[in-house]
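## Example record

The block below lists the input lines for one assembly entry, exactly as stored, with component labels intact.
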Amino acid sequence: MNFLHIFALARKEFLALMRDKRSRIIIIVPPILQLFIFGFAATYDLNDVPVAVYNEDSGGASRELLARIEGSPHFSILYEISNDNEIAPLIDNREVLLVIRLDQRFSANLQRGDPAPLQLIIDGRNSNTAMTALNYLRDVVLDFNREWQREHGQTGPPVKLEMRAWYNENLQSQWFIVPGIVGSLMLVVTLLVTALSVAREREQGTFDQLLVTPLRPVEILIGKAVPGIVIGLLEATLIILLMVWFFDIPLRGSIPALYLGILLFLVATVGIGLMISSICVTQQQAILGAFLFIVPAVILSGFTTPIANMPEVVQWLTYLDPLRYFLVIVRGVTLEGDSFALLFHQFWPMAIIGAVTLVLAAWLFRHRMS
Amino acid sequence: MSASLRRLWGMIRKESLQILRDPSSISIAFIMPVVLLLLFGYGVSLDAKNIPLGIVIEQPDTAAQSLAGAFDRSEFFHPQRFAAIQEAQQALIERRIDGILWLRNDFSSRLLSGDEAPIGVFVNGVDSNQANITKGYIQGTWLAWLQHFSAARGRALDLPVSMEQRVWFNPALSSHLFLVPGLIAIIMTMIGSLLTAMVVAREWERGTMEALMVTPLRMGEMLIGKLIPYFMLGMGGMLLSVAMALFLFNVPLLSPVWLLMLCSALFMLVSLAIGLLISIVTRNQFLAGQVALVVSFLPSFLLSGFLFDIHSMPGWVQTITYLVPARYFVAILQTLFLAGPVWPVILANAGAMLFMLLILATLVVKKSYKRLD
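Predicted C-alpha cells for the full assembly:
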C-alpha cells in the first residue's frame, strides 16, 4: 500500500467536492439549517394547549382550579362554553384539544368533602399529544388537591410520590432530540458524500481512468473513504459546538470517549456508503440506495421513538444500525456524563460493522472491476 | 386524435416506458411504501409497555408488598427487585432499568401511624417523552393502589378532585392509529418530490431535455406528459399504503374513499410541482436529491404535525410549517381516517393545498419558458 497514492486520491476527492460552489454549500448550509429548525421544532413538550371550559359551577373552588390551569404554561383557555352542543364542533375542527367540564355542584361537593369530578374530553387523533396533555393536567390537579386538603385541614392521601428525573432534570424534549440530530445529520452527510463518490465517477466515465492509474483497488477504497471521514469529523465538531453554545445542552462526560464514538461511527457509515457506491452504477441509484438505508436507520435508531417499544424482531434489526450505538454515546456523554467504561458496549459493535462493511466494499470493488 | 393529443400520448408513453425500465423508480414507488409502512407500523411506537422498573423495598411487610404487587401486575411495567437503593441506582446508571421505586424502611410505620409516607421515584429523564409517560403510569398505578388500599380499610380515598377522562377518536390512545395515516403523506412526498426531482434533473444533466425541446412538443404538453406517469405511480403507492393501513394495521377509515382519493390527488399534484420546480432550478441530480431531501422529505417528517405537535413549536417555526404542504395533508389524513369527514377541517386544508398548487404551477411554467430561450 502506498500512502502517497492514497493521499493524492483523497486530495483529488476533496478538490472535486469543494471546488463546486453548489456542492460546497450543500455540505455546510442544510445541516446547520436543519439543526436550528429541527432543534426547535422537534419537541414532544406541549405549550399553550388550546382548551375550552364548560363551567356550570359558580363557586370559588372551580375558579381557583381553572386559574391554576390557565396559569400553567402548558394550557391556555381559549373558549368558555355554556352548552353541550358546542363541545363536538370545537374538538372536531381542532379548535381545541381538550374540553374541561365542571358540573353545577363542583364547589359544593368539594366543600362538603364529597368527590368532585373533573370531566375531560380530549381529542385522541394524536395519541401522544393527548397523553402528554393529560399527564400535565394530572400534575396540576394533584397539586390543587394537596393544597386544598392542607388549607381545609383534611388529611391527604396516605402515600405521596416524590418524583425526580435524572440527567434531564426538567424533562425537556430538546435535551433528548438535539443530541439525536447530531447523529442523524452526520449519517446523512457522510453517507451521501461517500455513496456518490464512486457512482459519480462511474456515470461520468472517469472511474475507468482511475483504474488504469497505478492505484490498487484497496488504495482507491481508502482514498475514497478518507474525505467522508474528515468531512464528518469537521461537521460533527461544528454541530457539537452549536449544540453546547446555542442550545445549552450540557457536555458532562468524557470528550475523548465522544470522539472515539464519532470516529467509529464515521468508519461504519463510510463503509456502508462505499458498499452502496460499489453496487450502484448511476448517481440516481446511489442516492436511492443511500436513502433506502438512511430512512430505516434513523427510524430504528431510537432517535425519536424508543427501541424498547418495538417488537422483538424489529429490535434485533436495530443491532445492525450504527446510529443506534452512536445515539447512546452522544446522549450518554452529553446528558449522563458517561466515560469510556460505561460506553464500551456501544464502541465494539460499530467497529465490527465498520470492519465488515469495508471488507465487503473492497471485495465488491474488485468483483465489479473484473 | 388531434396533433396535440398525439404528441402528449407519445410523451406519456416514453415516460412510462422509462419508469418501467428503471427498477429504482418502481422500487421507490412500490417497495418503499411497503417497507416504510412495515417499519413505522411495527417499529415506531410511542406506547410504552414493560418499562424496566427497579423496586427497592427496605422493609418487606404487607403494605409495601401490596404496593409492589400492583406494579408487578401492571402491563406497563416489568419490575425487578433490588436489595438496596445503591444497587438500583447503579442499574439506572448502566441503563439496565428506566426507573426506580424506593420504599424506605419507615414506609409502613408512617403509613399506619397516619403520617404521609413518601415513596422515592427516580426516572431516567434522557428521553423526556418516555419519562413523562413513565411518570404518568407510575402515578396511575399509585392512585389505583391507593383507592384499593383505602377501600380495603373501610374508608374511601379522599381525593378532592378526580379526573374523569374521555378520549375521542382513539380511545385506546394507541400511537399507530395516528402514525400510519400520517405516513401516507410522507410516502407520497417521497414519490412526488424526491423521485420526480431526480428523474427530471437527470434529463437536464444528460441533455435529453434539450433534445425534447427541439421536437414539436410544446412546453405545456411536455410538462403534463412528464407529470401523468409519475402521478399514476404516486397514486399507486398511495392506494397500496391505504390498503395496508386498513387491512394490516386495522386503522379505521371513517370517511368515503372518494374523498380520500380526491385529497390525495391534490396533494400528489403539489408534490409533483415541487419536484419539477426543484429539477428545473438545480438541473443536477446530486443537488436535486439533496434539495428535495431538505425542502420536502425532512419537513414533511418533522414539520407536518405527523409526529410532533405544531402548536407547541416556537412561533417562527410555526410560520415555516405553513409552507409545508404535508402539514395540510397530515391534518386531512388524521381527520379522514379517525374522525370522519369534518368539512371545516378538510375544506380549509384542501384550500391551502390548492392555493399552493396554483403558485407552484405558475412558477414551474414561468421557469420552464425562460429556459427555452
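Chain B has two domains: 3-44+174-372, 51-152. The mean pLDDT of chain B is 85.
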